[in-house]
Amino acid sequence: MPYVLTPPPVPAVAIAGSDDLFPVNRVYCVGRNYAAHAIEMGHDPDRDDPFFFKKAPDNLLPASELDGGGDFPYPPMTSDVHHEIELVAALGSGGKDIALENAMDCVWGYGVGIDMTRRDLQGEAKKAGRPWDTGKAFDHAAPIGRLHPASETGNMESGRVWVDVNDAPRQEGDLNQLIWKIPEMISYLSRLFTLQPGDLIFTGTPSGVGPVVRGDVLNGGVDGISGIKVTVT
Ligand code: MN
Question: What is the per-residue pLDDT for 51?
């Protein structure tokens, strides 16, 4: 049966050391998952249930376009765009009601992403009790580096997470500071949604989030995997 329009391309992320691509299904993001970041956003960093929002898969600005440094076009309708550097877990399998002890079997690999945020629009939405989509799920809102298979990295449970802006340190944390660990997030999400191969999970950002302006160069990374370099244009 023909489509009435040309189908949109499958969003995909590049893989380190390979020409193959990782096809993306959904993009889940967790909020406030490092205590120091919860505090800087004005919240108590206790261990409330995790909460999630989504970006659209076509919001990804994938590494295939970022190798050697790519461009993040400053988005419209905002004057306060923030960087949030995050480890991203890429799922190779999914399911419902995944037990904690089986959750890591779902992880295909890991990458570094930036949860770009129109903080002013997110702030207005929070105040009005409205959805966060305009703050979080805009065009190019999810720059992401090359994925590394978990078969090479092992389970990523500790390691430095950072982003420098114009060579000055901005954000820094360690994966061992995650309030909700990756298997806990997978298990929890799988009670709310049927997880699928190709789902990505942005695992939260350490403290130090802040605004970017046109011309800024962001260099981010997580120990042990390919970093990400983005110029705000
Ligand atoms: Mn985030």
Answer: 92
CA distance 49 to 221: 27
- Cα of 126 vs centre of ligand 1, distance in Å, is 15
Superfamily covering domain 12-232: Fumarylacetoacetase-like, C-terminal domain (3.90.850.10)
Q: Is the pLDDT of residue 68 over 80?
A: no
Per-residue pLDDT at 67? 64
Helix (H) or strand (E) holding 62: strand 60-62
State the distance from the centre of ligand 1 to the C-alpha of 5, rounded, in angstroms. 34
**Span from the CA of 87 to the centroid of ligand 1 (angstroms):** 10
Domain ranges of the chain: 12-232
pTM of the entire predicted model:
0.96
What percentage of the chain carries pLDDT values higher than 90? Answer: 88
Residue 49 in this model has a pLDDT that exceeds 80: yes
Q: 151 C-alpha to center of ligand 1: Å?
A: 26
Phi-psi region of 44 (alpha: psi -120 to 50; beta: other; left: phi over 0): beta
Q: For residues 159-184, give the mean pLDDT.
A: 96
Distance 163 CA to ligand 1 centre (A): 13
Q: How far is the CA of 37 from the centre of ligand 1 (A)?
A: 10
Residue 108's nearest CA partner among 25, 36, 37 is: 25
- Cα 85 to ligand 1 centroid, rounded to whole Å: 7
